[in-house]
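Attaching the record inline, Q. Sequence:
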Amino acid sequence: MLYSAKAFDPQLFKQPTSAYRGAPFWAWNTKLSKELLLEQLEQFPAMGMGGFHIHARVGLDTPYLGDEFMEMVKLCADEAERQQLLCWLYDEDRWPSGYGGGIVTKDEAYRSRYLVITPFKADPNSGKTPSFDSCAAVVSHGRGQLLAAFRIVLDEQNLLKHYVMCEHDAQAAEGETIWYVYLEVAGDSPWFNNEAYVDTLNPAAVRKFIEVTHERYAEAVGEHFGATIPAMFTDEPQFPHKQFLGYARSQSEIILPFTDDFEQTYRERYGSSLLEHLPELLWEGRTISVARYRYHQHLAERFAEAFADQIGRWCEEHGLMLAGHMMEEPTLHSQTRALGEVMRSLSSFGLPGIDMLCDQREYTTAKQAQSVVHQYNRPGVLSELYGVTNWDFDFRGHKLQGDWMAALGVTVRVHHLTWLSMGGEAKRDYPASIGLQSPWYKEYPLIEDHFARLNTVLTLGKPLVRIGVIHPVESYWLYFGPNDQTSLIREQLEAQFSQVTDWLLFGLQDFDYISEALIPAQQQGTQLGHMSYDVIVVPGCHTLRQSTLDFLAKFAAAGKQVVMLGELPRFIDAKPWFQIEQWDPFTVIPFTKQALLEALEPYRLVDMHYDGPKFLKKPRHKKNWDGERTQKFLYQMREEGSSRWLFIANGRAEQNKDVIEPDDVTITVAGSWQAELMDTFTGEIHQLAARHGQGTTSIYHRFYNHDSLLLHLVPAEKAQNVQALPPLKAERGSKASWERHLHDAEVCVKREEDNVLLLDLAEYKLDDEPWQEREEILRIDNICRAKLGYPPRRAALAQPWVEQNEQQESEHILLLRFTFSAETSFKGTRLALEHGTEIDICLNGQWLHKQEAGSYVDSCLTAYLLPTLQQGSNELLLRLPYSRRLNVEAAFLLGDFDVAIHGSRCSLKLPTDQISFSSLTSLGMPFYGGNAVYSTKLALEPGQYELQVSKYRAPLLDVAINGQQAGQIAFAPYSVTFTVAETDGDTLIEIRSYGSRVNTFGAVHNCDEQEVYFDPNAWRTERDEWSYEYQLKQTGILKAPVMRKLTDEAYKS
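Structure, as predicted:
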C-alpha cells in the first residue's frame, strides 16, 4: 500500500513522509561504483525527495542486468530502506520498454513485426538506411516474407472500386496497380543496442521480457517488493507506428503493425480474414470499412493483452504495482498510431501514469490516466514531469506544471531527471539535471514540500466526479485512410476531442473519460467500476459499440441522463445504424460550448467568477468584469467522510512571467461549508471567511500568477475554531509610505564559483593530417568518426556496456588547438576536462605535468592547475588518444576573470567593479552557471519594508538583510518583507541569484529561438538553425529591485 493515511493527519500534513514525496529518475549513465552511488543518494532527501527511480540511461558502462549491476541495485535498495526512502525500479535500458536492453531481441522470434504494403516488389539484395530513432520506429532492411499481392482499381474519385488477391507474379492490367504485402521483422538499431525492439503483440515475447527483467529483479531485491520497492516503471511501450497514404494514388509504401498469428486471432475473433480485406485499411471506399475498424480494435486488444495485462498480473502477484506510461497518449491520432487506445492498456496498471515533455499542457493525457485511476480505484496518477525543459526552467515552471497536474490527479512525481554523471553524451540527455549538478538543488524543498503536503490530502477519501464522457477514439479509427481524403474529418474529430476536454475542465465541470473497451468488464448496473456518474456525454461519436449502446440505454432507463453532443452516431461497431428510436431516451444538443455547459449545469459542484475588474498593467488588454467565469483554473474535489477537499490550480501556460497579474475571484461551492485554508508552504491551517446562501458557499480569494489553493470544507454546523486569516492583502504598493527603484544604487556582484570560459571551438588535427580550420567540438568528433568508419554520435547510440567486449580499434591521436586573448596575465586558473587522465595539456608551448585541483560541476570534469596565462594571445593544445569509445567534449577555463565575447571568439578581462542590476551575460559572465550575489547598501530608517524583484532569469532568488535570511523569491508577486531595527549604519541587502547551467552546457550554437525540444540533437543543428556565434540566454537580475517602506496597516495585513 503506497499511502498509509486513511484520514487527515495534521502532523503528516506538516511533515509528509517519503511516500508522498517525489522520486526522480536517477540516470545510471556511467561506470557504476558503490562510492559514487552512495554519495549521490544523499542528495534526494536533501532536496525533499522521497526516493528515486533507478533508470539505466545513455552512457551506462556496467553490463545491464549483470551481476555487478544487480549488486548496485541491491546496495541502493538496502540504503533506501535504511533511510526510509522508496527505491522504484525501471524495467529497461533506456526506452521504450520491452527489449530487455537487447537481450530479449537477440532471438529474432521476439522482434517487432509489421506489414510493408508497397507497389514495388522487394529486391532481396536491397538494404535500407538504419534508423537512429529512440522509439519503435520501423528499422527496415528491405526484405520480408511476401504474404499477398492485390490488384487494385480506384475510381475517378480515387475511391476503392475493386480489389482482389492475385498471384505474386501477376502483371497489372490497364487501370490496375499491383500492391504487395510483406511481413517484415525489425532490423538492428543502435538505439536498441544493435538489436531491435520487441514484438509487443506477441505474448511469448513479453513473457521473455518478464523472464529477463522482472524475474531478475525479483531474484536480486524481491525481499523489498511491496515495501521499499513499491513499483516497476514501464516506459513508452508501443507497436510500430501505423502509417497511411499521403494521397490515394501515392506510389509509396506504408507500414502497419502485425504479428505472426494476427490473421489467426483476427479470424477467431471476427469470423473473417483480415488479409483478404487488407486494401480497405489503405483506401477509402463508398462506405465505412468494417475491416478497418476491426483491425484497429483487434490490434489495441492484442497489444494490451500481450503487454500491459501480462506484466500487470506479474507485478500484482509479486507485490508490486505496474507503473509508468504509454507512448503518444495525447491525441486521437497519436494514440491510434502507437497504441490503438491508451485507456485499455492503462487499466492493467497498478499506478497509471503519464509523461509531460517541454512543459506542454496535455489535458487529455492526464484526464485519460486520472479516469482509469478513478474507475479502478488506483492510489493515484504517476507523472514523469519536467522533461525536456532545458537548464533554465525555473521554480515558477516547476510549480505551475506540478500544480495543474495535481489538479488532474497526479500524486506520484517522477522528476525528469537526475544524472549520476554528466560525462559524454549524458550531459545532453534532456537537461536540466534536477540534482547536484544544478546549484539550486538544496533549495528544492520549497517545491517538493508543497507537493508532498498536497499529496497527503489529495490521496484521501474518494473523488467527486458526476460526469462521464465516452472516449471518441474508436470513431477516429474509421477514417484512418489516405491523408488527402480523410484529413479534414480527422481534424474535426481531433478538434472536438480537444474542445470538449477544454470546455469541461475550464468550465469547472470535472469529468472522467469512459473507454468503450472497458465498459463490459466494469459495468455493475449503472456503475462503472468504482464510479457512479449522474450523466454521460457522447461527444459527437460517429460509431459506438453495441455494448456501449446497451449500457447507455440501461443508464437512461435508471433515470440518469445521457447527453448526445452534436450529431448522433451513424454506426454501431462500424456498421450502418438506422433505428432512430434507440436514441429517444437521450438528450440531443448542438456541439457548442454553451449548449454543453448549460446541459450540465444541474451537476455543478464548483464555480469561479471574477470579482471586480482584473488588475491591468496595460489598459488595452481585455478586462474580466464582475461575474465572468474564469477560464484558467482547474480543480479537483475529494470527499472524506462528511468533509470535502478542494484543490484549485492555474491550468494555463504562463504568457508573461515578468508582469504581476492578480485575479480576484469568488469561488462558489455547492453546499454549506466552513472553509479552512491549508497552507502548503508552511503546513499551517487557517480559517477563511465564507458567505452562505441558496444552498452554496462563496469564498473570496486573490490569485497571483503562480498561486494554487487547497481548501478543507467542513459542514458549517461542524466547523471547528481555528486561527482566522487577516483580511486579504491590498494590491502591492498601495499602502507604502514611499517607494524607491534601486536603478542608481551602487551594486557589487560576487560569484560563488570561479568564472568560466567555454572552450568548444578549436582547430584540429587527426593523426598525420594537416591542421583543419576552427570547428565546434561535437562536429569535430563526428567528422573524425566518419573518417575512421566509427558510428556517429547523435541521439541514438549503442550503450558503452554493449561495446565493452568488442575489439577496440587501434588508437588514433586527435589534437585540439584553442586560442584566446587576455588583457593581462592571470594566475591561479584551472582547466576542467573529461578523460583528463588520458589527455595531455600544452599551454603556450609548454607541456604540463598535470596537477589535479578539484572538479567542476560534476566529478567527470576534473580540474587541473594551469601556469600563468600571458597577456595577449594564449594557445592551449590538447592531445587525445582517439577511439570509438572516447567522447570528445568541450573544455572549461576557470578563474577569477571576466569574459568578453566577440562573435565566436572570446577574451579574458580584469574583473570589473562597474556593476549594475543587469544580466550576468553583460557583466563579464556570459558562460557562468553558478550562483551570484548582488549586494548594495541603503540608508534605511527603522520600520517595515518590502523588497520586490519582478524581472529575473534564475531558478529562484533569496534575500538576506544584514546577513540574516529574509526570504526566497520564486513566485509572483516576487517580494519579501523585512524589518529594520535601530541601526548605526547602512542596511546591507544581498540578493542571491541561483544559477542555471544553460550558458555553460546548453545548446549555445542553436540559433532557433523557438526551439523547445532540447533532445541531444538540439546541440547538433544544421543550416539556418546553426550558428558559430554564441547564442546565449539572459541570466540573473534583469531589472533593478523596488524598495517600499510599508505603513503599519500594510505590514499587519
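The chain has six domains: 1-88+350-460, 91-322, 467-603, 606-723, 742-752+913-1052, 755-909. Residues 290-317 form the longest helix (28 residues).

More tomorrow.
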